[in-house]
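Priority: low. Protein: Aldehyde dehydrogenase domain-containing protein. Input follows.
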Amino acid sequence: MPTHQEIEVPGQGKIKIPTGLFINNEWVEPVKGETFDTVNPATGEKLISVAHASKEDVDLAVKAARKAFKTTWGGNVAGTERAAVLFKLADLIERDAEKIGALESLNSGKGVRIAREADVADTVACFRYYAGLADKVFGQTIDTFGSEKFVYTLHQPIGVCGQIIPWNYPLLMWAWKVAPAVAAGCTIVMKPSELTPLTALLLCDYAKEAGFPPGVLNTVPGLGATTGDAISRHLDIDKVAFTGSVITGRRISIAAAESNLKKVTLELGGKSPMLIFDSADVEEAADWTAMGIWFNSGQDCCASSRVYVQEAVYDKFLAALKKRAEACAIGQPSDEKTSFGPLISANQRDKVISYIESGKEQGARVVTGGQKWPQSNGGFWVEPTILADVKHGMKVVDEEIFGPVIVAASFKTEEEALELANNTTYGLAAAVFTNDARQMTRVSRALDAGTVWCNQYALLHAGVPFGGFKQSGIGRELGTYGIEAYTQVKAVQQNLSQKMEWPI
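Result:
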C-alpha cells in the first residue's frame, strides 16, 4: 500500500496525506499490508484507506522508541533542548492552522471554524505550555539527617509510553498526550482512533521538521482490539495513557496488569451534573449549559449532560435552554458558520437515537429535538435534544450517551441537589450556578468531580489539571500534574558518616 494518498480537503484543495506507519522518523508500510477505511461523517462516504498496524509493527515502533530513549532523548538531552523542539512544533502548527483545521474538520465532522479557532489554537497553546515546563522538573533535597547522610530526589522520565487517543478531539488529545511526555523526556508509541487518524498522521511530519529525533514519536494507526491491545500488553512499554470509554479503560488496565504491570493513566467517561440554584442568572446558566452539551455535538467526556434546577426556576430555565437548542448553528463542517456538526459515525448516531427512545419509553418528556436532523443527507446528525422530568434509574440519566442529549429534573433543597449530582459511578466534572458565595463554596467542595466550574462551564486550560473521580479515570492531565504523570521519583541516599557493623 502507498504511505501517502491525495484527498480533497474543503477550502484547501488536494492535500497529500500520510496513510502509512511512522516509525523512527520514516513512513513505512505495515508488515502484513493490512488497511482500514475512514469515513466522512458528514456524508457517510469513504474518505481514505489507512495502514493497520499489527503486533509486529507495534514491536518495531517500541524498539525505535527504546533506542531513542537510551541514546538521543530521555536523560541524555537538556530540558531546554526538549523545550526548543516543542516550541518549534507549536510554531509550525500555528503557521498551517488553516490546513490542519480543515483536515480535522473533514475527518471528525467539526465545523471548520471551531476546528481552527478552538482545537488548533488550543493545541498550539498546549505545546507552548509544556515547552515552558520542560526545563522546570525539579526534585527535592532532604537535608534533615544531620551528619549521617544527605538525600535528594530525581524526577526521571518513565521511558517508552504507549498513548491511545479518542475520536472526539483527535488533534487536541494528541497534544495533551504528546506534549507532556516529550517535555518529560519520554518517547512515544501513539495510536490514534481508527475513526479519526488523519491529523495525528499529518503532524508526524511536523514533529520531524521541528527536530524530534528518530524514535521519539512513532505513530501506529489501527483498531483497538489489535493495535491498542498490542500496545497495552507490550512488555517493553513502561506506561500506557488512554482517553476513551470506561469499558476500554478496564480492558487496558487488565492488559497492563497481565503483562509487565506498566503504569496506567486513564481519562474516561462522564455524566456531569450541573446544579442551578434559584439565585442564579437563568439566562447566563442556559448559555453555559448549551455550550457544555452542544459544543462538539455533545461528543465530550465532560459534557453538561445532567442538569438539576431548583423548582422555582425550573420551567424558566427549560424555556431558555430550548431557545438555545433551536438556535444551534447546525450545518456542514466546511461552512464557516457551523458550530454543530454530525456525530462521528452511523453507529454513534444510532446509539444516541436509541437512548432518546429509551428515555421516552421510561417517561422522560421531550422538550425539543429527539430525532435525526432532517437535512442529514447521508451524514450522522442528531438534533440538539432536551429530555425533561427524568428520574434516577432511567438509562438516559445513569449512562453516558456521548451525544447532543441533555436530561433535566428539578430539586427542592441543596442537600437533595447534591444527592442527585453525586448519585453516579462517574466523577469527571460538575458545575454550580448560584449567586450565593457561601453556597458556591459548600457545593463545590461536596461535589464528587475532578473539575467543578462555578457560574461557567467547559472551559479548559493547559495549565489547569483535568481528570476524574470514581470510574472517570486514574491520574491527571494538563498543568504540572500532567508532566508529573510522565516521570518517576528516585530517592538518592548518600552516606556521610554511618557505619555498618557485621554481624548485626
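Residues 273-454 form a domain with the Aldehyde Dehydrogenase; Chain A, domain 2 fold (CATH 3.40.309.10). The chain has two domains: 4-268+468-490, 273-454.
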